[in-house]
Amino acid sequence: MGRAFVYVILGGGVAAGYAALEFVRRGISNGKLCIISEESVAPYERPALSKGFLLPEDPARLPSFHTCVGVNEERLTPEWYREHGIELVLGTKVKSADVRRKTLLTATGETISYKILIIATGARPLKLEEFGVMGSDAENICYLRNLADASRLVDVMRSCTEGNAVVVGGGYIGMECTAALVKNRIKVTWVFPGKHCMERVFTPKIAAFYEEYYKKMGVHFIKGTVVTSFENDSGGKVTAVILKDGRRLPADMAVVGIGIRANSSLFEGQLKMEKGGIKVNGRMQTSNSSVFAVGDVAAFPIKLFGNDVRRLEHVDSARKTARHAVAAIMAPCKTGDLDYLPFFYSRVFTLSWQFYGDNVGEVVHFGDFSTGGFGAYWIDKGRMMGAFLESGSKEEYEAIAKAVKLKATVKDMAKLEGEGLEFAFKVSEQTMPESLEWLTTYGWHASAGVAVALSIAAFAYWCERWREV
Hints:
With 469 residues, the chain is an alpha/beta fold. The chain has helices at 14-25, 47-53, 78-83, 147-158, 172-183, 204-216, 315-330, 394-405, 413-419, 421-429, 434-442, 448-468, and strands at 2-4, 7-10, 33-36, 87-89, 94-98, 103-106, 111-113, 116-119, 123-125, 141-142, 164-168, 187-192, 220-223, 227-232, 238-243, 248-250, 253-256, 260-262, 273-274, 277-279, 291-293, 298-302, 308-310, 343-348, 351-357, 362-368, 373-380, 383-390. Helix 6 (204-216) links the parallel strand 12 and strand 13. Helix 1 runs parallel beside helix 7 (315-330) and helix 8 crosses helix 10.
């Protein structure tokens, strides 16, 4: 027994919601699309879990953060899916997939077939048990990836007010959960193996600013070591965290964020893999022409990086790759390769930062690190490859994004440091690139044919710029 659909989205996270909205906007017929999710709720904005759901006052709750409110689009409630004839198969685990036969087998024994499959299975958090950490199965050791994790974390926090928490891991989850714990009046010790927090994005100077801010909020840092075991009481709750350097930290709870792994195991041996995920082309199409992959599970070529294949673990990538995949499915002749600008952001306490591009090359810091109005540029071979800004305005973030997108030329690093944001605004206000400006300035003395060629080149340039916008 089974059901058949034209399109099936496997996974019910952020990407599934944005793909569904794109399908509807492109005129999909009722009954053609199915979304299969292990979660019991319709797709929602995962960033809300760490940024709003954990707050002690006026916390975010469904249905307020169903997709696609993260970019001020429609809120796709369960009723919305019913109204548009989209089948939500919730609380359902798929135990096997056969891409040759175009079928999925659920844990209940049902076979669901498709003509086109979009894999949006996301990623799972790495668990300390996988590294042999003794006692890491305690009931008050929390992870954060989905709504169930967030609900459990809230319950544990409520029982630990004024208590001690140990946060393990120096990345996104560590940074945002530490802030949430502090707001819930819990004393936090933040432990990670690196020299500073957010090593994948922050420079030491940037990290120092945030760490100093967190210290003023009462957070204690322990760097350069890892957790080796937990001490648990007879009720199965953690009471202390033991570190590799021998320190023992009393704890009423712990939060762990040590990385994630793409959920790609169903397709091992059936689809090509790369960078820990499912390899796709610029149209998000896998090695099987009937299967697409989006979001955290997809490894796709980045034009900005010379088509180097990357797997980007962030909500912005999930949203945009999902929409692009649907565009490629519904309008293949009108859809080219995705030209994606890598984008990461976070909000903690009263702080808010955005990062665009890649943190490769020489770093130039600018602004006032004492007040929080600061940023950084990454310059490689005379070109801007990345940009970071704390506490920027909408216009300022747009300016640094455009400077990275255009790989702005940088000739004087000292001047760049002095100009700071002014440099990005100058780039964004340019009417044409240097090469075209030179040609149009001096080329009119050439033949009429050259002048026509210059006009065509200028027109093509602006068509491309408008397409990017």
